[in-house]
Write a structure and sequence with these properties.
The protein contains 5 helices and 18 strands. By secondary structure, it is α+β, with helices and mostly antiparallel strands. It has one domain (9-336): Deoxyribonuclease I, Chain A (4-Layer Sandwich), CATH 3.60.10.10. The protein has a 6-stranded mixed β-sheet with strand order 3-6-2-1-18-17.
Length: 338
């Protein structure tokens, strides 16, 4: 072996995309929202296809899909060759009506997919009582766990996630009608607490799965998606536990790291790297977290994060539901071949 030889790498481009209520035309997804007309639908899938083409990612983690067929149409408009497109719970076909009640997450991949499963039920430790709702025992939008294999044989795992939003959770009757006054400040406070508790329990359930996957293994892991909170929030840190690394190096084994923080091309980091604008305030809700195998400074590293980019120019084009209200985040990763 030549000690002066430069290491060889395989590259992996990964991206996360909240596609904003991607549904087939003329189908109701949320009560009170008009279905897409055929014209709107075609405009939306063409726009998404163009964005997918620009991203040119090997792996796309997608959120807010009501109909898998609609995602397949958007992928077709990209002109790129993807061998795997799946949105569990949003399938269309005989006896399959797409997602109901809430949209689902999915995965689009050029890499060979060895397995894919939805994470539905919480482990007992993550179950919490939510005021007025009772025990919160399962994900509203089940994360998707997939095992992929790169061309050179390296396997890695990817979790696509979309956690509960900060939007207040008001109580409803069996017909979906509000039974609380959403204009009452005290009711608003309790409803916001419900959302926080639900998101926190989802984050803990996801954390327990991350520990299960990473503890004393060398399998690289990516967690991508709309986590509905910032990288250093309590709920995100429930999933990642990055802060523990500062005083406990052994915790790297099960920690996750924001790709923004560990990217090698630091000159590309910019203050404008937000992925969502809420009431005029920029936020980073769409995240890409990596295990220590992608952290160059780790002695267990088998790769690194070269750069992270956010595609958010469309956020200034107004409230157009045929676009998306989230920026798309893309990371260039490397894995060593030797």
């Amino acid at each position: 072996m030549n000690p002066t030889a430069q290491p060889r790498y395989a590259t992996l481009m990964a991206a996360t995309c909240n596609v904003l209520n991607l549904a087939l035309p003329d189908r109701t997804f949320y009560a009170g929202q008009k279905p897409y007309s055929p014209h709107e639908f075609e405009r939306k899938v063409q726009w998404l296809g163009q964005r997918f083409h620009s991203l040119n990612a090997d792996v796309l983690a997608v959120q807010e899909v009501w109909d898998e067929e609609a995602l397949r149409a958007a992928v077709a408009h990209s002109g790129l060759n993807y061998s795997f497109v799946s949105v569990p719970g949003a399938e269309n076909g005989p006896g399959q009506t797409g997602a109901q009640g809430t949209p689902r997450v999915g995965l689009v991949s050029r890499l060979k997919v060895l397995s894919a499963e939805s994470l539905v039920e919480f482990p007992t430790a993550a179950v919490v009582d939510v005021p007025g709702l009772g025990a919160h025992v399962r994900f509203e939008r089940p994360p998707l766990l997939a095992t992929l294999r790169m061309k050179h044989g390296q396997e890695l795992q990817v979790i696509t996630a979309h956690l509960k939003s900060k939007r207040p959770k008001f109580l409803q009757d069996a017909d979906g009608k509000l039974v609380e006054d959403p204009d009452d400040p005290s009711t608003q406070a309790v409803a916001s607490l419900r959302s926080l508790l639900m998101r926190a329990s989802e984050a803990l359930a996801l954390r327990l799965k991350v520990v299960e996957l990473l503890h004393r293994t060398r399998m690289p892991l990516l967690v991508m998606g709309d986590l509905n909170d910032s990288p250093h929030s309590v709920t995100t840190q429930l999933i990642a536990a990055t802060s523990q690394v500062a005083y406990d190096k052994a915790s790297r084994d099960t920690a996750l790291f924001s790709a923004w923080d560990v990217q090698g091309e630091a000159a590309l980091r910019r203050d404008v790297a937000y992925s969502h604008i809420h009431q005029g305030y920029p936020e980073v809700l769409d995240q890409l977290l990596v295990s220590e195998e992608f952290v160059a400074t780790s002695r267990r590293a088998i790769g690194d994060v070269r750069r992270v980019e956010v595609f958010n120019d469309h956020l200034f084009e107004g409230r157009d539901r045929t676009l998306s209200d989230h920026g798309f985040v893309r990371a260039l990763l490397r894995l060593r071949l030797d």
